[in-house]
Amino acid sequence: MKQGEELLKLQNFVMAPQGSPLSLPLSFSVRAGELTILTGPNGIGKTSALRALYELAQNVRTVFLPQMSSQRFAIPVTLSDIRSNGSPSSDAATALLEGIELSRLWDSASGGERQRVLLANAFDSEPSLLILDEPTNHLDIKAKHLLVESLCAWLGSRVEKHAAVIVSHEADLFKLRAPAEAVSLQVVTMKEFEKEPGA
Q1: pTM of the predicted model, to two decimals?
Q2: Which of 89, 147, 160, 184 has the fewest CB atoms within 10 Å of its CB?
Q3: Residue 45 CB partners (closer than 8 Å, separation 6+)
């Protein structure tokens, strides 16, 4: 997959529960080597747009990591148990897991530690397209910087280029931390549908 090659395209997506549109039509392309940040007001349908994109990616090796819930386990599951292969294999995963005690129980680990383990799994799955729904949730500022750096390293790590699409309210963080010479960055904003007065 060459730099800039189009993987797929979302066209005229509208969030319209019960036929009442909440958003204006949304269209954008996903290209190899590119990081796409999807922004917009809460409740406008950003997660639904990610799901629509995922459904389009039938012929693209894709990993979709939804927003992390406060999942708890009735059995003693450790962070190591959650790891897909037990040990880091990619540089991006290694960086994300630095300083984490994988022997710690999932239920006693912080939200940031859980999120970093799940993200490391996503990197190590070697997808062509990575879709992340608000991956900076539960992360402190240091971990957020680490996430951006790891994501950029993953995007530029191989001859066969990857792409990533993420929902985030922190587009400025990615703009500041993503090296322009290594990663192509596009910010796509979902806009609210404005009803006409009296409608």
Answers
A1: 0.86
A2: 160
A3: 13, 15, 22, 23, 190
